[in-house]
């Protein structure tokens, strides 16, 4: 059951937006590059921008419907909106900001704001002005202000964008907590793939003003609809291949240099021998082992040997919690000097260090056969 | 040393400037808001018209005012025919002249201050259930406060010092329409130096103090810092 249904068209200067999707689950994430139309969509949901055409429904309320000439003002949509730059009123204290949206009087109000201050851990900051508190505290205040009125839908426009990494991670935990507490659907815009992974129950992929795909995180990450979708969610290893054999529920594919076997899942059931396919493998589904140790680590069963290839590290890049490794498979045109690589994979820091890996070091990689996705070209 | 007419000129000037400033806030502020927020046909024309009194010689503004509110002017004649009143050569005319001449300063400063506010502050207010009017008074105007006050003070000073248009429409009737700048002019031409110096000193002090306040407000730290 979809709580929010968006089907709109909007032209803004030279930009054309066409959005058609439904929210599902607690947190729906709009994901895509900057300038792909996510923010514009969110503003039309809030009533801050008017679509040229289409409709926006939320449960039984019609927010907007061009055919029926309905355009509910933002004041009547019962939404909470958190802006990218928090937009706390600089001339009001934390307390006054949070109180701003609340009507009604007396003790009830006082108790309510007391509760909110506690939940958002703002009790000691209530008399401070926005510029006197940290970025994380500002965003907590902004969210507190947005939920104070008890909205039926919470819209978050990249609220954690400007925060430091550690604060951001903390805010993700907070959001998951608030989700439990307030129990209202949340639409969250992000272009941070970790944030997407961490928070989304349902993902809507945006690309250049179009919705490329919507689905559960599993669908989006493991079964992208096309090359663009795959690229958007950082699939990294996307290449053309040909199906050479189908046997025992496995599709064997081949490129000029690589042979791989992929488990045929429901989505891939139409694949036949001889098909030209696009092969998608996420970097985190390729494991790295030292030179010649692949058979030991994989055990004796045959799945351990499948998709294991020898080669060398062409280059690597350090990340906060992992290494991006660029790997070249042995075979034709095996030349590490020209910088060409066959796979990009994610290695745990300790694995990389324990294996003593470096540029040019020999190693083996194994690709999980259940995690290779093939789509027809 | 200070005679009744001089004292009257000081009080009249302050009264004229105060009324002009009040009119500026009532008329000028909505115009500033509309210029800052709305796009409409003829906006550029309206902006130019509002700025015109700033660049025209005040005597020319005075001439136009006579055309409008003079006894034979198109508003003045209606006033005279229906109520048998004429504002020409009264202090009302002085206030009107001061207002027309000083309004551009007020409107331009306020409009610039209002349009420099990120409209997402207002959006935030709307999503919190507040009406446009409530938002104007609780968010927009408080955020534009500095620019509006600065513009208002400058316009007050301009109104206080208004000479050319005032003498055209209100004349120089001591004890009735003679404001400080006009009194200074008269004192100079009748070589009454002590009277001249006193009036000059009063106008200078008021204007300097006001400029100090405006400049102090534009600095972040306040009046006596930086």
- Order of strands, widest sheet of chain A: 7-8-9-3-10-11
Tally of individual helices of chain B: 11
Low-pLDDT runs of 5+ residues of chain B are 221-226
Oligomer: heterodimer
Q: Could you tell me the radius of gyration of chain A in angstroms?
A: 25 Å
- The H-and-E topology of chain B, N to C, reads as HHHHHHHHHHH
Q: Report the sheet with the most strands of chain B, covering strand number, pairing sense and barrel closure.
A: none
> How many E-type strands of chain A?
21
Tell me the strand percentage band of chain B.
under 5%
Which structural class do you get from the secondary structure elements of chain B? mainly alpha
What is the helical fraction of chain B, as a range of percent? over 70%
Name the shape of chain A in a single word. globular
Rg of chain B is 20 Å
What percent strand of chain A?
A: 25-35%
Overview of the molecule:
The complex is a heterodimer of chains A (377) and B (226). Chain A has helices at residues 38-46, 94-99, 106-119, 135-148, 165-182, 193-199, 217-222, 227-232, 294-298, 302-305, 349-354, and strands at residues 4-12, 15-22, 27-31, 53-58, 61-65, 70-71, 79-82, 153-157, 186-190, 202-207, 210-215, 237-247, 250-254, 259-263, 276-281, 286-290, 308-318, 322-329, 343-348, 362-367, 372-376. Chain A is an alpha+beta fold and 377 residues long. In chain A, the strands form four sheets. Chain A has a six-stranded mixed sheet with strand order 7-8-9-3-10-11, with helices on both faces. A five-stranded antiparallel sheet of chain A has the order 2-1-4-5-6, with helices on one face. Chain A has a five-stranded antiparallel sheet with strand order 14-13-12-15-21. Chain A starts with a strand and ends with a strand. Chain B is an all-alpha fold and 226 residues long. Chain B has helices at 4-37, 43-55, 58-69, 76-83, 91-115, 119-127, 132-143, 145-160, 164-169, 180-189, 193-218. Chain B contains eleven helices and no strands.
């Amino acid at each position: 059951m979809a709580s929010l249904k968006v089907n709109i068209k909007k032209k803004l200067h030279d930009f054309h937006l066409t959005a058609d999707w439904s929210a599902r689950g607690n947190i729906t994430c709009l994901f895509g590059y900057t300038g792909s139309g996510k923010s514009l969509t969110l503003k039309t949901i809030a009533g801050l921008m008017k679509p040229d055409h289409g409709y926006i429904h939320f449960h039984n309320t019609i927010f907007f419907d061009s055919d029926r000439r309905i355009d509910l003002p933002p004041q009547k949509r019962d939404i909470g909106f958190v802006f990218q730059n928090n937009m706390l009123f600089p001339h009001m204290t934390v307390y006054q900001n949070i109180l701003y949206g609340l009507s009604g009087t007396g003790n009830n109000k006082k108790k309510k704001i007391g509760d909110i201050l506690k939940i958002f851990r703002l009790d000691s900051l209530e008399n401070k002005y926005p510029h006197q508190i940290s970025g994380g505290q500002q965003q907590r205040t902004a969210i507190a202000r947005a939920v104070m009125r008890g909205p039926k839908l919470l819209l978050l426009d990249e609220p954690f964008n400007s925060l430091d990494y550690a604060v951001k991670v903390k805010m993700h935990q907070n959001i998951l907590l608030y989700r439990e507490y307030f129990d209202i659907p949340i639409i969250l815009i992000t272009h941070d793939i970790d944030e997407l992974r961490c928070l989304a129950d349902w993902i809507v992929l945006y690309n250049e003003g179009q919705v490329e795909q919507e689905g559960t995180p599993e669908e989006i990450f493991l079964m992208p609809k096309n090359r663009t979708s795959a690229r958007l969610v950082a699939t990294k290893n996307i290449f053309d291949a040909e199906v050479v054999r189908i046997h025992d529920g496995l599709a064997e594919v081949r490129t000029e240099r690589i042979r791989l076997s992929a488990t045929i899942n429901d989505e891939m059931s139409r694949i036949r021998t001889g098909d030209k396919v696009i092969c998608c493998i996420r970097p985190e589904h390729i494991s790295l082992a030292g030179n010649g140790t692949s058979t030991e680590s994989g055990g004796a069963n045959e799945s351990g040997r499948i998709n294991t290839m020898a080669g060398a590290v062409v280059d690597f890049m350090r990340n906060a919690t992992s290494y991006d490794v660029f790997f070249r498979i042995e075979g034709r045109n095996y030349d590490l000097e020209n910088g060409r690589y066959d796979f990009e994979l994610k290695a745990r820091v300790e694995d990389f260090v324990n294996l003593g890996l470096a540029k040019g070091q020999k190693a083996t990689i194994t690709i999980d056969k259940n995690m290779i996705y093939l789509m027809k070209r | 040393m200070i005679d009744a007419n001089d004292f009257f000129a000081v009080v009249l000037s302050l009264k004229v400037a105060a009324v002009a400033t009040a009119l500026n806030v009532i008329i000028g502020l909505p115009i500033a808001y509309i210029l800052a927020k709305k796009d409409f046909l003829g906006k550029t024309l309206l902006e130019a018209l509002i700025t015109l009194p700033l660049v025209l010689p005040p005597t020319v503004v005075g001439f136009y005012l006579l055309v409008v509110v003079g006894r034979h002017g198109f508003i003045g004649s209606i006033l005279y025919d229906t109520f048998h009143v004429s504002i020409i050569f009264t202090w009302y005319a002085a206030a009107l002249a001061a207002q027309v001449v000083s309004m551009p300063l007020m409107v331009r400063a306020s409009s610039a201050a209002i349009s420099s506010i990120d409209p997402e502050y207002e959006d935030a207010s709307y999503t919190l259930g507040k009406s446009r009017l409530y938002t104007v008074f609780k968010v927009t105007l408080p955020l534009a406060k500095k620019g509006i006050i600065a513009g208002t003070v400058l316009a007050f000073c301009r109104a206080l010092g208004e000479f050319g248009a005032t003498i055209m429409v209100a004349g120089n009737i001591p004890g009735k329409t003679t404001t400080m700048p006009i009194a200074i002019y008269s004192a100079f031409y009748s070589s009454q130096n002590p009277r001249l110096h006193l009036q000059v000193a009063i106008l200078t002090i008021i204007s300097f103090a006001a400029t100090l306040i405006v400049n102090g407000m534009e600095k972040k730290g306040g009046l006596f810092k930086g």
